[in-house]
Structures are given as C-alpha cells and as structure tokens.
Design brief:
The protein is an alpha+beta fold. The chain has a single domain (2-145), classed as Pnp Oxidase, Chain A (Roll), CATH 2.30.110. It contains three helices and eight strands. The radius of gyration is 15 Å and the shape is globular.
Length: 146
C-alpha cells in the first residue's frame, strides 16, 4: 500500500522521539544510520536531528533526498521525500546537532503478507541516563518548535 502522507497510526507513532533508520545516498551508494531524534510535524512533514559532522548530514547536504524506515505495532513503513536543513545547530548542546525537515512524497507499507511487527524498536539509553534524557528533551523541543 502506498500513500503521499502519513497515516493517523504513523502520526501517533511519530509524536515523540522515534527509533528509526534513515537512508541517504552519496555517489549512488546507499548509506543507513539508526536515529532516535525523529518526530512528525503533520501528515506531510517529519523532522529529524543528526550530528552536524555525520555522514548522514554530509550526504543530505549533497543530495537532499532521504528515506526513513519506521517500525511500530503493526507498521513497517518507508517514508521518503526531499529534505531541507531548517536549523544548522540546536542551541544548548555540547556538540553540533542539526535539524532536517522531510517533505513526505511517498509512504510505503513494507509489511509482507503473513508478517507483522509486534512492537517498536526496543531502545534504552546507557551511561548517564539523566544527561541523555536532558539531551533528548532539548532536541525534541527543537524538533517541535523549529
């Protein structure tokens, strides 16, 4: 099944920080990375944050098209479209993090007949949990207000 906007179920999954896989490309070669700083703005837009020095950031600066794979209860969806850098650096962080906005062009349901996703990607912070939660709060605020 294919659409040009996020379903209500995807909007619900993407309301907060969402563990996902972002795919970019450079020189016609794919690159994927795991992110958690991702949220929906509306059915036509999602925002995500990446380290300014990362390969994902550099790839998007050269080629703004990306795809994000989102997994959740009963969902394995690929969301693709053109991105734009909307915030060069989030203030209040100890390292440079940038915000990209993806204009949804296509949403594809990647579940196959006879298969189902039983939940979201299990994710937890390690190390200094309070510092990680503080960082997440700063980034989520920037994703929602930018």
């Amino acid at each position: 099944m294919e659409s040009n906007q996020l379903s209500n179920k995807l909007l619900e999954i993407l309301k907060d920080l969402t563990p996902s896989v972002v795919a970019t490309a450079k020189d016609n070669k794919p690159y994927t990375t795991f992110i958690t700083w991702l949220t929906a703005v509306n059915p036509q837009k999602i925002r995500f944050a990446v380290n300014k020095g990362s390969k994902t950031y550099n790839n998007l600066k050269e080629n703004p098209y990306a795809s994000v794979e989102v997994f959740g209860e009963g969902i394995a969806s690929s969301i693709s479209g053109k991105t734009q850098l909307i915030k060069e650096e989030i203030e209040g962080l100890s390292f440079p993090v940038s915000v990209f906005e993806l204009n949804v062009e296509k949403v594809v349901d990647n579940l196959f007949p006879g298969g189902n996703i039983k939940g979201s990607i299990p994710f937890e912070h390690t190390g200094d949990i309070s510092k990680a939660k503080e960082l997440d709060e700063i980034v989520l605020k920037a994703l929602k207000e930018t």
